[in-house]
TrEMBL record:
Residues in Sulfatase N-terminal domain copies: 3-292
Family membership: Belongs to the sulfatase family.
Entry keyword annotation includes Acetylation: no
One Pfam family recorded for the sequence: Sulfatase
Annotated protein name in UniProt: Sulfatase
PANTHER family: ARYLSULFATASE FAMILY MEMBER (PTHR42693), ENDO-4-O-SULFATASE (PTHR42693:SF53)
Annotated Gene3D superfamilies: Alkaline Phosphatase, subunit A
Keywords, comma-separated and alphabetical: Hydrolase
Organism ancestry: Bacteria, Bacillati, Actinomycetota, Actinomycetes, Pseudonocardiales
Length: 441
């Protein structure tokens, strides 16, 4: 009998937030334990670093420009979704939270759903645990294997304990979920991510974010406690990076890197890590098909992770591509990125020296603090440059753009060739635009 499949997602959790990925101590004890029981992927990336398009890509295994959901719109008719494939194989399918972030909802044919408000605004570990137990019991009654997508709404804004939380959620809504099992305060010297300036307001918001990340970990604990681990393939990841400047809704390393953990009894070895191969969230679709022993539909862009999960080498894992199309507010900022072990290359098709970037990652405390402090990073973030090139070995936080440095001319040319080939191979609608850009450069 094929395994049960549990897919747990975090909302806006950075790839280096869990302790098992180098994050601050004490934030994610459950995820750290899950990692010790399974396998971590140090070079895992989502396809697009914003919520709904990222989730649509996961559930179709296709690039946004090939599944129709480049922004916050429905997946195109005729594109198979994961639950359709699994249901044909007899799976009982359920979803907890973020139900409306997979459109059209009816295409997924969920047998079991619990929305945000039924889950304490997507922040109640007890509600997630109870719903997971109910789902598993219902699947058992029907004698069917199951697929459950459990989507925590943490650490998405508003962050725990923030002024924004008080303003956005009325008192009756806040009463439906608890505080995190650990709250990070001024006494916790956790610093800030290296791509952000170390300012008092940034530190405050990062601590609030970590508190919300801890509550996400509490949700994971509740969900895991409700399922039988012996015959369950468990996958955890985030849909994109932290909702702050230079992360979510961009194409930087910290935008798309996701804390991917896989525990598959009998397949993965406990406490192992794959830190060399680049993998994409698109790869989950064919991996789940392999687990369910069903054919992968034609047109899927990802490739199964099964060889890596077994500890075997796999070709084609020396780089990863990511894209960005549209913000939640429908702002169109086309970006394409290629990352390998040395360089990160970004083409900003929107950058013309005049237009200003605007996105939801500029809400909260961090961006206003950056603006008040001033500096070149503020102006650069608003306008960018048509091309960005970063030596990720020397500059993992993408602070020094080398695209105009003659010393890196050959590296820039190589990155351009690789991106052009990828745009061509995937039928990217901006292929002609990029060719014209290169011809003029």
């Amino acid at each position: 009998m094929p395994p049960n499949i549990l897919l747990i997602t975090a909302d806006d959790m950075g790839g280096d937030t869990p302790g098992c990925f180098g994050g601050p101590a004490g934030v994610t004890p459950t995820l750290d334990r899950l990692a010790s029981e399974g396998m971590t992927f140090g070079r895992a990336h989502v396809a697009v670093a914003v919520c709904q398009p990222s989730r649509s890509a996961i559930m179709t295994g296709r690039w946004p420009h090939r599944n129709g959901a480049q922004g916050f719109e429905p997946i195109a008719d005729g594109v198979p979704v994961l639950t359709e494939v699994l249901r044909e194989a007899g799976y009982f399918c359920g979803i907890l939270g973020k139900v409306d972030h997979l459109q059209p909802v009816e295409r997924f044919g969920w047998d079991f759903t619990r929305g945000m408000r039924e889950l304490g605004m997507g922040r109640s570990p007890a509600a997630y645990g109870e719903a997971s137990a109910a789902f598993v019991a219902e699947a058992a009654e029907q004698g069917r294997p199951w697929f459950l997508m459990a989507n925590a709404h943490d650490p998405h804004r508003p962050y725990s304990g923030s002024q924004a939380e008080q303003e956005r959620f009325p008192a009756e809504a806040r009463a439906t979920y608890p505080a995190p099992s650990r709250v990070f305060g001024p006494e916790d010297d956790v610093g800030v991510p290296g791509f952000l300036p170390d300012l008092p307001a940034v530190r405050q918001e990062y601590r609030e974010y970590l508190s919300s990340s801890r509550r996400c970990d509490d949700v994971v604990a509740a969900v895991l406690g409700a399922v039988d681990a012996t015959d369950t393939l468990v996958v955890f990841l985030s849909d994109n990076g932290i909702a702050v400047p230079f992360a979510k809704a961009n194409c930087y390393l910290q935008s798309s890197r996701t804390p991917l953990i896989v525990r598959w009894p009998g397949v993965t070895r406990p406490g192992t890590g794959e830190d060399t191969a680049f993998v994409s969230a698109l790869d989950l679709f064919p991996t789940f098909c392999a687990a369910a022993e069903v054919p992968v539909p034609s047109g899927v862009d990802g490739q199964s992770l099964l060889p890596l999960l077994r500890g075997e080498p796999q070709d084609g894992r020396d780089a990863v591509h990511t894209v960005f199309h549209e913000t939640a507010a429908k702002g169109r900022f086309e970006m394409r990125c290629r990352q390998d072990a040395r360089f990160g290359y970004i083409w900003n098709a929107w950058s013309d020296g005049v237009r200003e970037y605007r996105a939801e990652n500029m809400l909260g405390l961090t961006w206003p603090a950056m603006v008040e402090a001033g500096g070149d990073r503020v102006g650069f973030y608003l306008h960018r440059a048509p091309e960005e090139l970063y030596d990720l070995r020397a500059d993992p936080h993408s602070l020094a753009n080398l695209a105009a440095d003659p010393a890196y001319g050959e590296d820039l040319a190589a990155a351009r060739r690789e991106l052009l080939a990828w745009l061509d191979a995937t039928g990217d609608p901006l292929l002609g635009t990029y060719r014209a850009f290169l011809a003029e450069s």
